[in-house]
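Example 9 (inverse folding). The structure is encoded as follows.
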């Protein structure tokens, strides 16, 4: 993925989604040459000169102050993730060199294996699944059957037809969130070659991924709800939480899912847990 002018493309995309009447500006009607706000209108809202704002959209963020970025963020009505992303694009963080492949401490795998009635897994910084328990393989994807270089949620969401079928009508929101998270990660570590290579490989295929990438959405993954149509038990609705792993720089987070206590989804998970066990990452390692 050519890095290009990530800052300018992001600003343009956020400007295009706003209309003058949404931000208190007078609209004179007629056909506008560009979607959303004009550069002049955005500069007026942010309290900066048009020339200064144009330089930002051209990718020239040298010496731009935090205060000006905050003003532009307010004018564009950015949310928390987008606000942080704007600052990272204007002031890129230093390259974060990570180990390849990620290293997993044995206690983390032991923790995963001890969770027997809910999916749980550890992911790296490229949506790569580093370790998983047996219910992850049962509910989502049997990762033991996936080639190691395709054990990423990005691959599974966009290229695995079986997983897409399990997501059902929820595929598009999940795919959009995945791509928005990749945008978030690019802002965190713009010089991460493995991340860029992953994105390039999907962009080269065109289609849905490229369309979603061009939306320039940005979001971190903190908590939410998974909806899976399992071939044996039907619909599963599983709230999830993410736990960061600050002591493991090669890893991103631990993802844990749990059905609402007493719900039909808890009963379904229990039924799956009592059935034939698929392989966890520790099972796979022992058989290697």
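The amino acid assigned to each position is listed next.
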């Amino acid at each position: 993925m050519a890095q290009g002018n990530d800052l300018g493309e992001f600003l343009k995309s956020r400007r295009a989604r706003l209309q003058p009447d949404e931000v208190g500006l007078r609209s004179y009607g007629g056909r506008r040459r560009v979607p959303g706000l004009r550069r002049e209108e955005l500069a007026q809202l942010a309290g900066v000169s048009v020339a200064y704002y144009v330089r930002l959209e051209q990718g020239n963020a040298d010496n731009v102050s935090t205060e000006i970025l905050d003003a532009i963020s307010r004018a564009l009505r950015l949310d928390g993730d987008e606000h942080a992303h704007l600052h990272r694009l204007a002031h890129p963080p230093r390259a974060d060199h990570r180990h390849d492949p990620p290293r997993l401490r044995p206690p983390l795998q032991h923790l995963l294996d001890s969770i027997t009635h809910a999916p749980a897994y550890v992911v790296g910084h490229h949506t790569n699944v580093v370790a998983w328990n047996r219910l992850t393989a049962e509910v989502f994807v049997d990762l033991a059957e996936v080639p190691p270089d395709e054990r990423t949620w990005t691959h599974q969401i966009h290229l695995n037809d079986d997983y897409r079928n399990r997501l059902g009508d929820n595929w598009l929101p999940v795919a959009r969130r995945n791509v928005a998270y990749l945008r978030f990660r690019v802002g965190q570590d713009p010089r991460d070659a493995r991340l860029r290579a992953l994105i390039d490989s999907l962009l080269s295929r065109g289609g849905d991924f490229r369309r979603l990438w061009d939306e320039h959405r940005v979001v971190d993954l903190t908590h939410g709800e998974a909806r899976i149509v399992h071939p044996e038990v039907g619909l599963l609705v599983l709230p999830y939480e993410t736990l960061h792993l600050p002591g493991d720089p090669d890893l991103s987070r631990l993802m844990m899912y749990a059905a609402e206590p007493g719900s039909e989804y808890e009963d379904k998970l229990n039924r799956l847990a009592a059935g034939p066990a698929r392989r966890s990452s520790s099972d796979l390692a022992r058989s290697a």
